[in-house]
Amino acid sequence: MILPRSEGELVEAIASATSPLLVKGGGTRMIANAQGEVLDITGLSGIKLYEPAALTLVVQAGTPLAQINTLLADERQRLGFEPPDLRGLLGRDGVSTIGGIAASNASGPRRVQGGAARDAMLGVRFVDGRGAAISSGGRVMKNVTGYDLVKLMAGSFGVLGALTEVSLKVQSIPEAEVTLVLDGLSDDAGLAALRRALGSPYDISGAARAGGRSYIRLEGMAGSVAYRAERLRAQCDGAVLEGAQSAAIWAGIRDVAPLHGRAGDIWRLSVLPTDAAGIVAAILAAFGGDTLRDAVYDWGGGLVWLALPAGADDAVRAAINGRGAAVKLRGAGAAPFAPQSDQVSALSAALKAQFDPHGRFAQGII
Amino acid sequence: MEMPRPSSMILSRRAQIVAQLRAALPKSCVIDDPLETRVYECDALSAYRCAPLAVVLPRSTAEVATALRICHALGVPVVPRGSGTSLAGGAMPSADCVVLGVARMNAVLSADYDNRFIHVQSGRTNLSVTGAVEARGFFYAPDPSSQLACAIAGNIAMNSGGAHCLKYGVTTNNLLGVTMVKMDGTVVTIGGPWGDGYGLDLLGVVCGSEGQLGVVTEAWLRILPKPEGARPVLVAFNSSEVAGACVADIIRAGILPVAIEFMDRPCIRATEAFAHAGYPDCEALLIIEVEGSAPEIDEQLSRIRAIAARHNPIEFTEAADEAQAKRIWLGRKSAFGAMGQMGDYMCLDGTIPVSQLSYVLRRIGELSAEYGLNVGNVFHAGDGNMHPLILYNANKDGDLAKCEALGAEILKLCVQVGGCLSGEHGIGLEKRDLMPVQFTPADLEAQMRVKDVFDPSWLLNPAKVFPLAASAARRGDT
Lengths: 366, 478
Description:
The complex is a heterodimer of chains A (366) and B (478).
Chain A: H1 7-15, E1 21-24, E2 37-40, E3 47-51, E4 56-60, H2 65-73, E5 77-78, H3 87-90, H4 98-103, H5 111-114, H6 117-120, E6 121-128, E7 133-137, H7 149-153, E8 161-169, E9 171-172, E10 176-182, H8 187-198, E11 206-210, E12 213-220, H9 222-235, E13 239-242, H10 243-254, E14 265-271, H11 276-287, E15 296-298, E16 303-308, H12 313-320, E17 324-330, H13 342-355
Parallel strand pairs in A: 1-2
Antiparallel strand pairs in A: 3-4, 4-8, 5-9, 6-7, 6-8, 10-12, 10-13, 11-12, 14-16, 14-17, 15-16
Chain B: H1 8-12, H2 14-24, E1 30-31, H3 34-37, E2 54-56, H4 61-74, E3 78-81, E4 98-101, E5 108-112, E6 117-121, H5 126-133, E7 138-139, H6 152-158, H7 165-168, E8 175-181, E9 187-191, H8 202-206, E10 215-222, E11 224-225, E12 230-237, H9 240-252, E13 259-264, H10 265-275, E14 284-291, H11 294-309, E15 315-318, H12 322-342, E16 344-347, H13 357-371, E17 375-380, E18 388-392, H14 399-416, H15 435-438, H16 441-454, H17 468-475
Parallel strand pairs in B: 2-4, 3-4
Antiparallel strand pairs in B: 1-2, 5-6, 6-10, 7-11, 8-9, 8-10, 12-14, 12-15, 13-14, 13-17, 16-18, 17-18
């Protein structure tokens, strides 16, 4: 294991490496098949800048998420993209770091309103496979200066380089939140209710379905939340949960709690919301039984989490049939990237060759 | 502004190049009459002009691919063009290039309200995307000032923003997928209506790449349900510094207006003389717009009023009705036109951390006096995206050079305080040579490596974004 204490040491470690490296933060989201000598970035940890009035946070990549959450909460702020804690789902332990979140574009239920991790990332510093320290973006809210390598690094799972620093846009914690709980609907009807809510002017910050219930979240100023909840209930009546009860529901959706402890492979599907129920039904038909009873739908049905028996790959791809993407995050052959068109694969491989010509990073995962 | 010397080899083969394009494309798609190509000699950075060798206006992705394949085979540079509204010279031609305009490709391919996206050809104008979905209660969020004219193709190339991106984000946050033609003529689809592609985020790097990686011909865009209503307020102050502090306090309080616009005295005076919006004669004014139902708007505005009151504004006017709302926005929306009445101007676009607002405004005032050129400031204060407008006289010898020198000083200042050269207009030709102020050679090298992947022969919009010296070897300019 290599444990650099500074960007300079990281540059040195990569430049002098002669065999594959495995960039690692807390290891809570890594793909099990990834190979190489561990390049531990938790030595690059700490807050470099926090300006609450500018909604700006700059941190070193190895900084633990928990430390960031505490720092922000003290100023009544948070990461708007609600990064999931995947330890329960993937059966990992360890301490989640901001670098791992950025490298996996880990985004929770609020993605439907405020965007993904990639959208909150204002800038990055990273060291590529040639040992060059590179900066892209910055710390300001609007920036079109040069190519957006920030997006390229977001969700790249360390195949292009090792992140050393991430700049983020943060948001204020709203004063109120409520969740509307819709019970007794079929999957079709329950997902249609989510889509109707997302198409309303009521600024939905969460739209999910799990365990036979649909959940719709509203956040904001107290009067506004009350008004919107009332209007939504006029179109789909349900129970209302407030405050901590509401927050607990969304922590469970975010971390995919209904699938914790389940045997088999863990799949993550990205599909059109209107296709979600049909795709899950097709997979169910191929596998039978009640293995899919616990499908977790987030983002109004645009994101589906499944626990499936091993060997479901062909059935999943057949059900999606090119209309979306699926990745297996746990199980034999798990990889963070879905198969792509030849054109996109060729461009991705060429980018990898440019940034990592010696094949230093992330062997075994692409 | 230095441009590479046009290739005499390409110029000498002009007839052959045009003939090949004519042979492969419908007759009306290829323009080479010097009278007609002059229409394309510049974009909105009109201080610089150069007619291209020819112009191609395809009507489909296949025709774009045909045109690019021919130019690629003949080694002819191509400058892609949406509506030509770039303020940075992004669509500025060279004498040896073919301009490829997508303006004829403006169809809506599909609109899906259940899944909240629209699929359009890239020549469609920004405002007409909203126009296509507003009857169903939806809108497309990014709203650059030029939205009546500017094309989605250019919005994607420059990652355009607008006044309302404080809440809704810029183009990259609202773009789901594209169909793009690479310089060699291959067509590639990146992303799609389902978003999140689970691979390297090629879409993210294509957006904002200033037409240097490919020509986007179709796009899937996120559409959003329209809020129930919106209302602006106008808050006037006797000091820019205090206005800046008020902005910081509003954001700090967790209120997220859809827009916070800032105008300083020179801009206020110019717009009053031009548009008669009824603005007070003051040092600085803010236009703050909030959205929602009437009671939600009241709730937000009462908090904003309380915060503003702590800063002793000299006026706080809430729009009582639609007509007054229009009047409040009128001056802001006419600001560029009003400044234009006073003379030629250059519009800068640096972004700064909002905490540096008052310092930067003061420094701009000092620099303005030093250079003897007037500067008005009108900008998106909520996200620190400045728009200093430098007034100069194009007919006066040396004035343009002086204006550019002042512009460079102001942009360096933006970078110095932790900001960047461009918040929403792009680098183009205009800020190309300032890139080393913000980036190290290694940073620029990494960006140019991305272009190497998409366009190895460096034929697509080649003389933009990167300093000429930095890209010379790649462009074959030795």
